[in-house]
Amino acid sequence: MVSRRADDAFMALLRTYHSQRFCRVAVRGARGGGGILRPAHFSTSSFARHQAVPDLSPDAAPNLTKETRVPKDVAVIGGGITGLTTAHYLAKLLPETSNITVFEAADRLGGWIDTQEVEVDVKGQKNIVRFERGPRTLRGMGKDTWRFDDFVLFDLLRDLGMHSEYLGIKSPPRYIFYPDHLVNMHPKNVFSEAAFKGVIPGFLTLFWRRAKARREPVPSDMSVADFIRFATGRPELTDNLASAMIHGIWGGDADRLSMRSFMPGPWWRFFLKGERDDWVTVPRNEESVLETLAQDKELQGYARAAHKDQLVFFENGLSSLPNALERGLRQKKNVTFKLGEPVTNLGYDRKTAQISLSTKNSEFPTKFDKVISTTTSNTLAAVSNNALPSLADSPNVSIMAG
């Protein structure tokens, strides 16, 4: 019988991540200030004392204390954009004595991101045409204050010298097909399109139900569809609008997707009232970004310039980012790539506190102090000998849109 200790630890980690742990950030945007992008206006409930802004430049020395146990050998499973970004920051923050190995099942890096260039001949003139075989854009956070991923992206671009290639635009028009034609999801169509039936009364009901819900205990969770019905009292909003949008974005079912997991911002802001009008609630796990990257004046400038960008791409195609990450990592003596070597088995040695890792091509397992997986939960469950059965029950969807 498999021990439940590791699986219980995994579930505890998930509960911690999605638990009610927040900090408050002062914002002044409505009054003409710079909002959270200005250090003078930044505060959280967890600050016990003022902390100096750390040096985040690419040449800065790693900030490691004597108590920190530095791993000697680290493995990253997956060579997609997540795995490459992980390896980049490991190489940036760990000393050169730490060895980093990236395992990728395919014979190329970049994962789903795949820009291909094809030479075409038009009336005797040769040109290069780029095709995005995977995603065409990255999703920018825009004005959202729930997550601050953009600061990580800007930090990456600075490290890689790619800011001149950055291109960002506002989100283009979105459409759904209802009932027999395309409907532009613009507020101007609220009164003219049947797809928006119930939006106005539902919006008014939301304010009343939100005020009532904030006086009661926060529910443990509910599906996206149940939340919309609960908040607006209009089930047709799910049937006509939300289900189509959610299926297009996540490829999932609105009646099965967790509102708390997939839309944590709207969830918590519905049930929790801000302590002050000029404060916003952000997750505690974003605090480290706010304390470090968001305090960097150069990154603040990038964020201000791009705060309206919701779709991000690059001048020479989206593969520019993973390609630049790969080039930078290959220049590191302590980084090794193992392409065409899918990981087949992971095991934990309690005596040495190390993880043994086997691949399709390895004769014997290799020991690592740390292993970071960037693959799907189902893939990780398959190679971990059922040590984390909850992973096998975590569904995932891959979407390829034509």
UniProtKB/TrEMBL annotation:
Q: Where in the cell is it found?
A: Mitochondrion inner membrane
**Any idea which UniProt keywords this protein has?**
FAD, Flavoprotein, Heme biosynthesis, Oxidoreductase, Porphyrin biosynthesis
Catalysed reaction(s) here are: protoporphyrinogen IX + 3 O2 = protoporphyrin IX + 3 H2O2
Biological process GO annotation list?
protoporphyrinogen IX biosynthetic process
Name the EC number(s). Answer: 1.3.3.4
Recorded hits in Pfam families, A to Z, give: Amino_oxidase
Names of the cofactor(s): FAD
Question: What cellular component terms from Gene Ontology apply here?
Answer: mitochondrial inner membrane
What GO molecular function terms would the record report?
A: oxygen-dependent protoporphyrinogen oxidase activity
- Cofactor binding mode and count: Binds 1 FAD per subunit.
Residue ranges of domain Amine oxidase in the record: 81-381
Pathway assignment:
Porphyrin-containing compound metabolism; protoporphyrin-IX biosynthesis; protoporphyrin-IX from protoporphyrinogen-IX: step 1/1
Q: What does this protein do?
A: Catalyzes the 6-electron oxidation of protoporphyrinogen-IX to form protoporphyrin-IX.
Q: Which family does it belong to?
A: Belongs to the protoporphyrinogen/coproporphyrinogen oxidase family. Protoporphyrinogen oxidase subfamily.
Q: What is this protein called?
A: Protoporphyrinogen oxidase
Q: What species is this protein from?
A: Colletotrichum higginsianum (strain IMI 349063)
